[in-house]
Request: fold
Amino acid sequence: MDDNKKEIMKRIEEAGDPENYETTWDEKGVPISKKKSKVKMGRVSRAAGGRFELKVRKDLESKGRVIDKWSNNVDLETGMLIPAKRKFNPFAKVLTIGVGFPDFVSIKKISEGVYSVMGVEVKMNGTLSKVEKEKCAWYLKEGIFSEILIAKAVRDGRKIGIEYVDFKEKYGK
Reply:
């Protein structure tokens, strides 16, 4: 009980410090304080990730591939392909649609009636989580994608380049 009291007192103290903390309340009325510097860092990281995702899309389109946002996801418990959940931002009053995994589906015609269909996941650091690895393995096993590429940001000074890593090569089968 003593640890719980300390946690509550810490949250109250942080909620009363508007200079350094941004405080919101959850549905139960419990204050959640986040450091303003961390909130800003998250906003900057999200924006950089969005710009990199757009850069990857333009790069693949310049290579003659047709790109579209992938709006599906995998339910690993049932082993089924499901529509991705939509995210609603109450502050901007915006409903975000393209939140599937992987980020893009890329199609290229190889010959008459034969197409290359691959998934592209965009990651600034190029590292997938355990769940993302399981989803990629499921997509390949089910034959939904012929290959899955991970687009990774490669820095050259201030310039950011793109490196594509094949899922099978990096993580095996």
Residues 2-171 form one domain. The chain has a mean pLDDT of 83. The chain has one domain: 2-171.
